[in-house]
Amino acid sequence: MATKQEQQFNEIQKKNLEAAMRLAQLSIENSQRIMELQVGTAKSLFEEGVANAKALSGVKDPAEALSLRTSYAQSTTEKMLSCAREIAEITSKTQAEVGKMVSEQLSGGGQDMFESIQKMFKGMPIGDHNALGSIQTAMDTARSAYEQMTKASTEAFQAFTKVGKK
């Protein structure tokens, strides 16, 4: 029969595995969205290119040909920028979801681990009672640093998407 500490450790492992599976599923779903977007954009650009080539083959006037080429180039650029913006938005939303999940995992898992360590240390003769406080401080510092990194990268991504829209 498993000891209480083994059961706690198994529970922490189970929570970590569930979080890893959620992250993998999120990654797969968003990769699929991005691929579908890219395939749709490529198909649209190909069809537009074929239509433009057909239109150009029937043109006799150089000014009209130039106008068609300019229009095609502008349309292509707009579609590619739109695709890039959508990919950036998908990525930004995914990053926010992953950040939230990791933050929850750090908070919940960190607390679970701290409680397990606390229970383990209760039965041991420890001369320095500040050890648990130091462990908690280290975990809080790590969580805070992660949250700051997530916030900074989210802000940078939002600035990127705003620049792309201008």
Structural commentary:
The protein is mostly helical and 166 residues long. The chain has one domain. Helix content is 90%, strand content 0%. The protein is built from 3 helices and no strands. The chain has helices at residues 4-57, 62-122, 131-165. The protein is elongated. The model has no long low-confidence stretch (mean pLDDT 78).
What's the number of extended β-strand segments?
0
Shape designation:
elongated
Extract low-pLDDT stretches: none
Q: Which structural class matches the secondary elements?
A: mainly alpha
Report the mean per-residue pLDDT as an integer: 78
Estimate nothing, just give the exact number of structural domains: 1
Question: What share of residues is helical?
Answer: over 70%
Q: Please tally the helical runs, counting DSSP H or I stretches of 4 or more residues.
A: 3
The termini sit apart by 64 Å
Order of helices and strands: HHH
Give a topology summary.
Layout: H1 4-57, H2 62-122, H3 131-165
Summarize the structure.
InterPro entries: Phasin, Phasin_subfam-1. It contains three helices and no strands.
Features:
single chain; 166 residues; mainly alpha; elongated; Phasin; Phasin_subfam-1; Phasin family protein
